[in-house]
């Protein structure tokens, strides 16, 4: 799934300047959010702010979803054996396993991609971009990053039964369809699995006379079959979704997903250069949900020896199924409830209940990353619908980690996600493919175990920077003085704090009168606001405000603040600080305001924006 709460924010300066000169209204958009529209008249700018949809994954005002398969529709390939009792010594080798391949030697993941016919409805330029570049690139990333521990090769997926009814054939100790096998088997709701991918299917009438249906073919020589479709489904239309994905079949002994799909919503695609990185991050994220990053699979995780971490029901061979959450439950060896007492919010302290993934490698990685030896595990997202909640890392704690529930900026797949993949028990991860997560690095237990309000208050008391959080509303400040370069100097950032039209849920209130007392500059505007309405624009980050890339929308074009994209250049007539966007550009501060002389030098205007993107020409000088 995955990934662009591009804080669709906007480059405010050009808007301000535009306004100075032409009295145009600029549109300011915080990227992660998008539900309620509210007009704020602040100084001479008309700004729109949005409250966030907390479900799915917004990508530039749009969302990406992971849908957990309904329990009855989740099939187990080679499901003839799925009711076999497990024992430590039981070594299951499917009869169609390719004997030439070593079973025990972990080998690089092989993904077979099958394009649904709907995919070919894309115009040729989109088809080329996705089929020749984006999808192969995303797949290559995971093939190079993961080795499969228990190879099931080649794959023959299970066929579904009519009415999804199964019976257990006692004589052969196998499962069969109760009345008949379905003519077609789907992966997800829309994609029909081709006949050559399917195993034979047995059905038993009156539980007696059993017949096989479908010819078993050679199968697919891969570890995972990924179906790619581009169906404008109700999921796309209902929520302005970019893409959605899931696994659809698990292998029967170790329960690793062996089949899954990604549906790309046709209206969401773009060939704009600046949309390509987010699209790639999105595909990698979505594929990872299909490969195993899903709360629906936590109950199937294995220890290092291949034994289940959650006890299986002897009669089904599966973990216990919770009909309320619609998910297989995981034991406390995988997920634990943790109580955080003294959780600071608003003017009070509460006890906050959080869920943490506590598997060994993830635990070691998060402790190392945050430099907190008492950290219990990796916090899971507590907001959003079933496709977001628990199935992503908590946004407040992991911000730009790619497996958080919304894309904001600079998406990275960190060692923590790689550790997760190893802790599934199905993969060995190549950590050299992991990317560096800077957010929260070495900030200690106070950062990772307390609310962002606690962090901000305690840092202010010590006169220290409250980074990575921030606490001003750009719309209420002279934003031109508030821009910052990100650490990599490849984008211009602003604080994503906004005033909501509604009260923020109590447990996510991060401001109170203390903030007022300590912000002399804010006294002019704060009395107009209730503290219960103040928060960051990314709801999944528990409304904690943080510095985020900016994008701005004008004349229906969205530009953003990443320096390397030429298309982000301001219009020539409005390029007041002579910025230069392009592949060699970086973010710089020129520290002083610029003066612009107009009317044959008779008038003078001060442009106080002192941060912008500029082409690096004499890079070698910096190296010296
Ligand atoms: Zn996701």
Structure characterization notes:
This protein is α+β, with helices and mostly antiparallel strands and 624 residues long. Among the domains are: 106-313, Elastase, domain 1 (Roll), CATH 3.10.170.20; 328-447, Leishmanolysin , domain 2 (Leishmanolysin, domain 2, Alpha-Beta Complex), CATH 3.90.132.10. The strands form 13 sheets. Strands 4, 5, 6, 8, 16, 17 and 18 form a 7-stranded mixed β-sheet that branches. A hairpin with a 2-residue loop joins strand 21 (335-345) and strand 22 (348-357). Helix 2 (124-145) packs across helix 4 and helix 5 (360-370) runs antiparallel to helix 7 (415-423). It starts with 11 loop residues before the first helix and ends with a helix. Residues 1-63 and 78-102 have low confidence and may be disordered. It binds zinc ion. Zinc ion binds at residues 1-2, 57, 66, 285, 289, 392, 405.
The amount of beta strand, in percent, is 15-25%
> How far is it from the N-terminal to the C-terminal residue, by CA?
43 Å
Average pLDDT for all residues: 78
Total beta strands:
35
The percentage helix is: 10-25%
Give the CA-based shape.
globular
The helix/strand class is alpha+beta
Number of helices: 11
User: What is the correct CATH architecture of the domain at 106-313?
Assistant: Roll
Keywords: Hydrolase, Membrane, Metal-binding, Metalloprotease, Protease, Transmembrane, Transmembrane helix, Zinc
InterPro entries: Peptidase_M8 (IPR001577)
EC number: 3.4.24.-
Binding site for Zn(2+): 285, 289, 392
């Amino acid at each position: 799934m995955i990934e662009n709460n591009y804080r669709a924010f906007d480059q405010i300066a050009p808007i301000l300047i535009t306004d100075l000169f032409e009295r145009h209204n600029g549109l300011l958009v915080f990227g992660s959010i998008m539900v309620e529209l509210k007009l704020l008249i602040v100084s001479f700018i008309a700004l729109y702010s949005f409250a966030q949809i907390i479900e799915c994954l917004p990508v530039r005002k749009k969302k990406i979803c992971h849908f957990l398969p309904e329990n009855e529709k989740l099939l187990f390939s080679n499901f003839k054996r799925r009711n076999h009792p497990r024992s430590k010594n039981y070594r299951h080798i499917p009869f169609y396993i390719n004997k030439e391949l070593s079973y025990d030697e972990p080998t690089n993941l092989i993904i077979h991609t099958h394009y649904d016919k709907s995919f070919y409805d894309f115009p040729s330029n989109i088809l080329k971009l996705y089929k020749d570049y984006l999808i192969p690139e995303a797949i290559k990333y995971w093939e190079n990053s993961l080795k499969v521990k228990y190879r099931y090769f080649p794959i023959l997926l299970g066929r579904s039964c009519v009415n999804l009814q199964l019976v257990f054939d006692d004589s052969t100790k196998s499962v069969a369809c109760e009345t008949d096998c379905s003519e077609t088997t789907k992966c997800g709701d829309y994609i029909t699995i081709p006949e050559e991918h399917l195993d034979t299917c047995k059905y038993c009438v009156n539980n007696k006379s059993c017949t096989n249906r479908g010819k078993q073919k050679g199968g697919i020589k891969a570890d995972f079959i990924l179906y790619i479709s581009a169906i404008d489904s109700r999921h796309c239309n209902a929520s302005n979704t970019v893409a959605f994905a899931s696994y659809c079949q698990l292998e029967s002994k170790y329960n690793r997903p062996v089949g899954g799909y990604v549906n790309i919503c046709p209206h969401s695609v773009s060939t704009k250069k600046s949309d390509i990185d987010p699209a790639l991050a999105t595909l990698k994220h979505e594929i990872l949900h299909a490969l195993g990053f899903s709360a629906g699979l936590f109950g199937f995780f294995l220890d290092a020896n291949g034994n289940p971490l959650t006890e299986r029901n002897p009669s089904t061979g599966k973990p216990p199924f919770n009909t309320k959450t619609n998910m297989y439950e995981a034991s406390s060896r995988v997920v634990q409830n943790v109580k955080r007492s003294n959780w600071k919010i608003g003017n009070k302290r509460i006890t906050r209940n959080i869920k943490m993934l506590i598997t060994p490698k993830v635990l070691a990685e998060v402790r190392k990353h945050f430099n907190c030896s008492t950290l219990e595990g990796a916090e899971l997202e507590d907001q959003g619908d079933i496709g977001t909640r628990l199935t992503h890392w908590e946004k407040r704690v992991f911000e730009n980690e790619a497996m958080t529930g919304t894309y904001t900026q600079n998406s990275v797949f960190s060692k923590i996600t790689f550790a997760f993949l190893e802790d599934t028990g199905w993969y060995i991860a190549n950590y050299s493919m992991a990317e560096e997560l800077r957010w929260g690095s070495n900030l200690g237990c106070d950062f990772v175990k307390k609310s962002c309000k606690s962090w901000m208050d305690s840092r202010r008391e010590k006169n220290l920077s409250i980074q990575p959080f921030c606490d001003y509303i750009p719309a209420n400040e002279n934003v031109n003085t508030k821009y910052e370069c990100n650490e990599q100097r490849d984008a211009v950032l602003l604080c994503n704090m906004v005033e909501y039209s509604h009260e923020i849920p109590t447990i996510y209130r991060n401001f109170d009168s203390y903030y007022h007392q300590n912000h002399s500059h804010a006294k002019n505007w704060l009395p107009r606001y209730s503290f219960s309405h103040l928060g960051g624009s990314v709801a999944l980050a528990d409304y904690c405000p943080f510095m985020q890339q900016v994008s701005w929308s004008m004349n229906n074009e969205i530009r953003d603040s990443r320096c390397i994209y030429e298309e982000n250049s301001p219009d020539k007539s409005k390029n007041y600080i002579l910025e230069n966007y392009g592949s060699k550009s970086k973010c710089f501060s020129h520290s002083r305001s610029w003066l612009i002389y107009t009317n044959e030098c008779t008038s003078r205007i001060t442009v106080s924006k002192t941060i912008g993107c500029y082409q690096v020409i004499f890079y070698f000088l910096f190296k010296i």
